[in-house]
Amino acid sequence: MEDRVEQDEPTQTTADGLTRLATSIVELLGEQAIDSRLGTKLLKRLEKEAKLVTEVGPQPLNKTQKRTLREALDGLEHALHQVDADLLVSANAKLRSTDESSGKKAKTKA
Length: 110
What we know:
Number of domains: 1
Number of strands: 0
Strand content: under 5%
Order of helices and strands: HHHH
Number of helices: 4
Distance between the termini: 64 Å
Shape: elongated
């Protein structure tokens, strides 16, 4: 119900502002200044705001603005997938090193 009310109201947010924000979030993810879970929440909010900007924004968007905004959001989504993939690889490597060290200790005791 909240989404319906929010979508009916015009927004002052611009496509350029959303694009810059998405790009900044990608940079922060790359610097490991924010967690990917926060990045995911921000992406969801940016997606909702992008829909509002496109439909009832302060100015109608041309094709270039729409494409640029979409590319920025897609770039953020890609960055989030990459961070999550990197975390998975790191966790897997830790697990393997733990298993290997446990296996060596078990062999020496046997």
